[in-house]
Amino acid sequence: MALAVMASSCATKKEAVPTVTLKTTTTPTGSTSTATVGKGKKDEIKKFGDLIGKTKADKGLFNTYNVDGKYYFEIPDSLYNREMLVVTRFVKTPTGLKSFGQQYGGEEVNDQVWKWERHDKQIFIRVPSYSVRADSTSDMYQSVQNSNLDAVLASFDIKAYNKDTTGVLIDVTDLYNGDVPAIGLPESIKKAYKIMSLDNSRSYIDTIKSFPINIETRTLKTYKAGDSPTDKTNGALTFELNTSMLLLPKTPMEPRLSDDRVGFFGQRQTDYGTDAQKAEVTSYIHRWRLEPKDVAAYERGELVEPKKQIVYYIDPATPKKWVPYLIAGINDWNKAFEAAGFKNAIVGKVAPTPEQDPEFSTEDARYSVLRYFASDVQNAYGPHISDPRSGEILESHVGWYHNVMSLLRNWFFIQTAAVNPSIRMAKFTDEQMGELIRFVSSHEIGHTLGLPHNFGSSYAYPVDSLRSKTFTDKHGTAPSIMDYARFNYIAQPGDGVTHLYPQIGEYDLWAIKWGYTYFPGHKTPKQEKEILDVWTKQKAGNPLYYYGRQGTSIDPRLQNEDLGDNAMKASTYGIANLKRILPNIEKWTYQKGEEYDDVQTLYNEVINQFNRYIGHVTMNIGGMNENFKTYDQKGPVYDFVSKSRQEDAMTFLKQQVFKTPLWLVNHEELGKFDNGVVISRIKAVQVNALNNVLNPSRMARMFDNQAKNGSKAYTVAEMLGDLRNGIFTKGNPDEYQRNLQRGYIESLNGLLNDEPNKSRPGASASQLANYGLTPINIELSDIRPMVRAELSKISATLPRGGDALTAAHYADLRLRIKEALSPTRPVINVDNGGQGRGFTDSATDNNMNW
């Protein structure tokens, strides 16, 4: 009897059902799987020996057998209803899939929890859900069970009983050789390449290997496809996949409740078993299970080794010269674990060779691996897989793309070359690049330990402290390596600063202590929470231990790629350094016999860095500070950025952006690659900054601030007046100023006449505001009256006369304003970076690497 894939509970079956292969069905995730239905017949249960013969068992979690190309699992009674984590990864992939996500060998396809269940003469795979729960001792337990039935993924007929009848034999060939979404190709690739079906004639199971707590299955799958990233004549795509089935601990690790004031990845569920008079949402952090070998010594305050060390293996495909730096980045976290009472808690190792360990595989779910990809992607990432019952991290496969070195080189050069003569070259030394690799390795390992980005960390250090050699030698650039606080662009020539990048800092030690400290005595999560809450309140108000979440544009402290506690001051220093670097790019990166591609790349990086500084400053306008608190902590969770700081931000924009940044027009450098587009480059910088300032969500918060705080608020009227004064200056405007003035009129025209985005399906106003997407009904708000008034003021103050080009420009502006106030033609938005007039602020930087 072959496999049948199902999506719901099964009916009781007294006899064998018709033989089928995989058939079209809907899985719990909504995916479909198509195959054929065979002829019906009745299958008798055979004797074990008759079916298996002299085939030797591969002993392990389940004994497995390969009999003439058919694969069997021998499932012991003791493992029924035990939860098993199933992780499928790519082993090898076709070229050209980069634009569709993480699809290199070693990257994850899917993970799911399975439970093997016996019913009469059949075995089922059930997929449990952990979204709702109630303790087994709770009155709500049975009710939750009744409304949380585990889906049935697949069914199998029992083929034979083992000799002592403590286990059954099933045929899993069709499961692993078929097109089952849970362990096969993701829907994103299927849709992208018009995949129609699995071609069984070009697919096979390569190996199934059993180990004490896991089974590893490697398959090759070929899909019929209407499109292909490479050779379309094949009409197919072939992938090699590995599926790990790992037995989860019988007793889950005691979970630790999360806290918004301390950053950890986690999982949420609705708990009906609490004393709360509602369905309570609980959240557990993700962390490794660390328990001291010697509890008594741990309680005495001694550093103690854990029972099980966290081990990361370096992919054998990694260039050997980078291996020591990658391992050093892993081992750097030991000082953080010492804050939690553990020594030698984590270690990086070279993966064993086939001669040293023939059974070792980088796809094996028992091992955590840093995988190295031959890819031009400029990134690295640190995922982890956790037990959905408790949040226990079970394994991680860090993804390391070879071309992350290009990003490191460009950013380190653009941000520090002004004060770092040793990198003024086309190619860094191996030692220089190695130290940068070590930094990224530490950052990614931090993610695999459960730590998300802490975008608020870099705000803890005063700007001028980052110009101090003594301070930076000790502290680096931020209290957390998990911030996107890259390299020290603030330090100026003559400061003597040489430590220019982040390191594991004060916040990281605190977060690991909070998440990994072991509490003896089998305390409950609530009892632990009471202790941890005391710790957290003791750190409250100290910026060194502040956690600022990623993903919101409401708080100007929570930005990527920024440094210091004052964006205006920090960006001014940064621009001063860009002005030093730009004229010297060709000189500092000279390459005999090479074309000027590198000069162009680095010039573009200068513009990108300048745009980052503009974004850092702009977020102060209409910004709010976010400080999560509990009832017993004083002060607001949200308060507005001070009026003076918002005014400082506008002054910066007027001086550095709306006053043409002519320093970007370096004729010596531009002459090597620019073919007549420099005016467009400058216009894009200025108009994109302008549109960011005029974002409706920002203006919504400014109106709210004015309503709450009156004259203490920086108002929309004041902002528009400041923009007008900064954009329409005295004298004949040059080509850059004319572009900016037209851009301003068109931006106001868009606010006045564009059809606004009135809603975002599935999200409430408070949810949108939580991420800085503050909703506002432009048609009914004060935005349009203010814009009409602003356009009228501009029209009334526009000068007349001047040379022919100036006169034509002002005449055109008057016509544009007239059209905006009384539109007779479709509104055309000019140079708004492709951004509509919706709810969202412009991102500071879309290159969200690491």
UniProtKB/TrEMBL annotation:
Polar residues: compositionally biased ranges: 841-850
Task: Kindly give the CDD domains that the UniProt entry links to this protein.
Answer: ZnMc_MMP_like_2
Q: Which domain of life is it from?
A: Bacteria
Residue span of region Disordered:
828-850
Keyword list, A-Z? Hydrolase, Metalloprotease, Protease
What residue stretches are annotated with the EcxA zinc-binding domain? 427-731
A Gene Ontology molecular function term of the record: metallopeptidase activity
Pfam families hit by this protein: DUF4953, DUF5117, DUF5118
**In what residue span(s) does the DUF5118 domain sit?**
45-93
Q: Which residue range or ranges hold the DUF5117 domain? A: 106-293
Instruction: Give the PANTHER family listed for this entry.
Output: PEPTIDASE M1A AND M12B (PTHR38478), ZINC DEPENDENT METALLOPROTEASE DOMAIN LIPOPROTEIN (PTHR38478:SF1)
Name recorded for this polypeptide: Zinc-dependent metalloprotease
Give the lineage.
Answer: Bacteria, Pseudomonadati, Bacteroidota, Sphingobacteriia, Sphingobacteriales
